[in-house]
């Protein structure tokens, strides 16, 4: 039996036996793309009598000028655990069996997080489901994760804003069960934590690690993670990235849920504003109309660009391959979006694709399902 040390520079492969610090031998069941802060993420089965399935996440902490790698590891662990407790307090289902191991690698303290396997990734499951199943899944995620945060974490002084937030993408939800028995949804993305605190200069919102310093990146991040309409917008876009051809179905389901919330503000206002209603009619505009519409859009309009791209992908099946590129060129996690002109050019390329008929749209498989 060949055993591979973990972590190493070369990512482990499915089926390999790895030796995980503090956990022992595990067989790799599945690997995941890199998370934020250079994490290696995998699902493994312990090779002991328990045969337990664990999610394992490795954090590459560093020595900084005023902070050692050991101090950074402790800070990250404390942030994750604090956020987890805040979500439990909000009655959100979060990962169980969570634990941490610190170890030394190359003279630096590294941090390993592990937790019980909570089910299939929501985006993978959505791709497999019928329209009826997708509707049931969206409702389950809203009721079990999004709505509890809206109900229990609202800022009493600022309508529509939250004190503790969410990164409400469907890929950040693990799911067990089925449509008949009911879906059990678990929020699995505890890093980077979304908590806020009051300071003498005002409320400070945690967004990423390390925290962005650019003003626009901070404002966009706050809208996406702490503003109720922004959270609904981000969740809807994450659904569309899996199946753009079902964007109108997802819109209608989420609009019904938003109406039930009976808020003084519209939870779907940003989506409705930029895609022109549940038929996403902005995606049918002619090329000359689109050029005029987006001419003055800049970095602050990153959400407009993404929503517009979702509408274009819904109406134009051959444009769907460009959808991930639009999201990539409007990235603002560490700083402001700097490739806006490139993103706008991608919108024009999408618009040049022919409009797909409703019948054809239902037959065409999405090319962005695994994004």
Mean pLDDT, all residues: 92
In sequence order, what are the helices and strands, one letter per element?
EEEEEHEEEHHEEEEHHHHHHHHH
N-to-C CA distance: 34 Å
Major β-sheet strand ordering: 1-2-3-4-5-7-6
Biggest β-sheet, characterized? 7 strands, mixed
Low-confidence stretches: 367-371
**Which term fits the overall shape?**
globular
Number of H- or I-type helical stretches: 12
**Number of extended strands:** 12
How many discrete domains? Answer: 3
Oligomeric state of the chains?
Answer: single chain
Strand content: 15-25%
What's the alpha carbon Rg, rounded to whole Å?
Answer: 21 Å
- The helix-and-strand class reads alpha+beta
Percentage of residues in helical conformation: 25-40%
Describe this structure in words.
The protein is an alpha+beta fold. The chain folds into 3 domains: 1-60, Roll (SH3 type barrels); 63-96 and 119-206, no CATH class; 229-371, no CATH class. The protein is built from 12 helices and 12 strands. The protein has helices at 69-89, 122-128, 131-152, 215-226, 228-242, 247-261, 269-275, 287-294, 302-315, 323-329, 340-351, 358-363; strands at 3-5, 17-20, 24-32, 40-46, 53-59, 99-105, 108-116, 120-121, 173-178, 182-187, 196-199, 202-205. Strands 1-2-3-4-5-7-6 form a 7-stranded mixed sheet, covered by helices on one side. A hairpin with a 3-residue loop joins strand 9 (173-178) and strand 10. Helix 5 (228-242) packs antiparallel against helix 6 (247-261). The radius of gyration is 21 Å and the shape is globular. 42% of the residues are buried. The model is unreliable at 367-371 (pLDDT under 50).
